[in-house]
């Protein structure tokens, strides 16, 4: 007779191949996916600031 699944020990180290299962950020969240460059956009963002922001 076998033990219930709750009591069975499974060695998960055999499944660790070093690959990331779920990334922290997906490709569509990166600026490069939207055509943005890696340069500093601070000046452009300050220029595009709405007038009601003061």
Structural description of this entry:
With 54 residues, this protein is low in regular secondary structure. The chain is built from one helix and no strands. The mean pLDDT is 78. Residues 41-54 have a biased composition (Basic and acidic residues). Residues 23-54 are annotated as: Disordered.
Number of helices: 1
Series of secondary-structure elements, N-terminal to C-terminal? H
Q: Overall mean pLDDT score?
A: 78
The number of distinct β-strands equals: 0
Region (Disordered): 23-54
Biased composition (Basic and acidic residues): 41-54
Short description:
By secondary structure, the chain is largely without helices or strands. The protein contains 1 helix and no strands.
Key terms for this structure?
11% helix, 54 residues, single chain, little secondary structure
List the helices and strands and how they pair.
Elements: H1 42-47
